Each structure stands twice: as C-alpha cells, then as structure tokens.
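Sample pair:
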Amino acid sequence: MARFITLDEAIQIIGKCDEAGLVPMPFVAQEIRTLCNCCGDCCGVLRTLKLDPKPVEKIISNYYAEVNQDECSACGTCEDRCQMEAIRVGESDVAEVNRDRCIGCGLCVTTCPSEALSLVVKPESERREPPAKGKEFFMQMASQRGKSLIPLSVTKRSSG
C-alpha cells in the first residue's frame, strides 16, 4: 500500500492529488512517515470527520482558510472543493469560512480563480503541537473518548 519515493516524485504526486481535489492527510506525529491524499466519499476518516459538528477539534492543523472579501467573486469554486463543507457563499455574495469546520487543508486556496483565499496560521493560543510519535496520538485519542490503551503503551517487542 505504500513505497518510498523521492522528494521530486512526492511533489508531483501532491500536485496531481490537489488537482483531483484530494485532502492531504499526513500521519499526525512530528515525524511524518506517511501521507494519504483522500476524498470524503471513499475515506472513512474524512467521512467521520465530516459528520462531526466541529471537525477542527478532531485533527491537528495549525491553519485555517481566510477570505479576502474585496477579492471574492462568489463563484462557488471553494464551496465545491471543500470536503468539510466549511465554506459557503453567503447572502452578501462573498465566501464565508466556518472555522469550526475548516481543517486547513488548502484545497480552496489552490483553485480560487480570484485568489481571494489564503491559509492563515492560527493564533498561538489555538495551535497544537503534534505528538512526537504516532502511538502517542492514538493514546490521546483514546483518552479523549474515555478509553484506555494501556496494553498499547506497555507492549514489548517480541524476541522471536
């Protein structure tokens, strides 16, 4: 399901995935070893996030989309591209971003014909640092759900 690739190949793949409207989803740890590019139709993670009223609380992303209202042409491209349904063209004929739903993926930014959208770094008080290792991320998720993954935290390598 995965293979090692060069940096140049990774950049080409990311470009093709962006064109296809796929959300870049790095594994949530400081040392990124994998990167999925997913759609809300096929990916169980994105489908589940989309059902949540505040997807932004379930992921670690330190960015959000912002609209320059003077530049927005209300074309709706961003609304169509957003997998989290975080953008709507409002009554004032300007795109509006729901920050509770925006996961900062940037799909809206890369295809805005009037370049009215940009990704903005969240204020420091809203930023979250990814855990050092993937196992820590799963432990945090379980803890938030009121579950324990103690066996995972004490798992020993088998000697044989």
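The chain has one domain: 7-153.
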